[in-house]
Amino acid sequence: MNSSNMWNPQNLQYCFDFVSGACPKKIRSLASLSALYMIMLGAIILTMGGNLVVIISISHFKQLHSPTNFLLLSLATTDFLLGFLVMPYSMVRSIDSCWYFGDWFCTFHTCSDIMLCTTSIFHLCFISVDRYYAVCQPLHYISKITIPVIVVFLFISWSVPCFFAFGLVLSELNTDGIQDFVASISCIGFCSLIFNKTWGVLASLIAFFIPGTVMVGIYVHIFTVAKKQARKTDRVPAASLSETKKISVKKESKAAKTLSIVMGVFILCWLPFFVLTITDPFINFSTPEDLYNAFLWLGYFNSTFNPIIYGLFYPWFRKAFKIILTGMIFSPDSSTLNVFAKT
């Protein structure tokens, strides 16, 4: 997305040798290069591996073919594609400040980056809607969250970000009024999306603040309802008060922990990047490039954490992971195994 290119004029190396107009290359120490590659490669491997386990589990085991899990399957597909199509090339660009993959792929990469990150956030928003009905309206959950409803959720989650990302980049609305600035920093090996003031705000609202606010609002409501239900459960005859109270306290504690992790990780990962996206045009694009890249990768990490948050909290995920890891998935009729059974 948006990035400033503040080059150090000393000891310049260039992205392409013997090419006039090539971009300066970022000079880093061996220790810095090693650390960055280890962190970013680790994130890429975990993102692809973790989400691939979710994809295989839900696709393979028939017991997991439910409306809710189809939403998780689509989220995992989105995050896997981000790890496969976007993060490896962003890694090279972030470390070297160079784009080696051509102008066409730069456009495709930029569109995919915006689309998949936004799609992932939209999925998280709709998962919060699913959790709302599961916790707050459990009697109506089966009738409300059906396969057709999930199809609508998925259609919105994919189509709106796709139209937004490709429409914005290909129309170049984001550079309206700042063409001279973009021309002044452009060079051979440059690939970064620059937002003007208007689209810095609008893009952040569409991709993060609106779905994020909906998501956080729903989870706060879920937590409030869960606490009220726990308190009502406490109002029981004295004979059974002690055991019931233990159960209610346990449920309330688990709900608080789960929701705090969901909201905390989501906000921690994406808020800094989108605040920067809004503010950078208003401070004349003076954000240090490494700071921008740090916030961008923090956002990517949300796709790394998603299979942990939305996978490891489910007991079936641990069972399915064990079956895959031990090779039992290749046995006949493994798709009919009971992944909800305790082991």
Structure description:
The structure is a single chain. A two-stranded antiparallel sheet has the order 1-2. With 343 residues, it is mainly alpha-helical. The model is unreliable at 1-9 (pLDDT under 50). Helix 1 (30-60) runs antiparallel to helix 2 and helix 2 packs antiparallel against helix 3. It has helices spanning 30-60, 67-96, 103-136, 141-144, 147-171, 179-185, 197-234, 241-279, 289-309, 315-325, and strands at residues 13-14, 24-25. The protein has a single domain (13-332), classed as Rhodopsin 7-helix transmembrane proteins (Rhopdopsin 7-helix transmembrane proteins, Up-down Bundle), CATH 1.20.1070.10. It has 10 helices and 2 strands.
The proportion of strand residues reads under 5%
Oligomer: single chain
Q: What is the 3D form?
A: globular
Helix content: 55-70%
CATH architectural grouping = Up-down Bundle
Distance between the termini: 46 Å
Helix-and-strand structural type? mainly alpha
What is the CATH superfamily? Rhodopsin 7-helix transmembrane proteins
**Care to count the β-strands?**
2
Q: What top-tier CATH class fits best?
A: Mainly Alpha
Indicate how many domains the architecture comprises. 1
Number of helices: 10
CATH topology: Rhopdopsin 7-helix transmembrane proteins
Radius of gyration based on Cα positions: 23 Å
Helix and strand element order: EEHHHHHHHHHH
Could you name the key traits of this structure?
343 residues; mainly alpha; Rhopdopsin 7-helix transmembrane proteins; two-stranded antiparallel ribbon; 10 helices; 70% helix; globular; disordered N terminus; transmembrane; glycoprotein
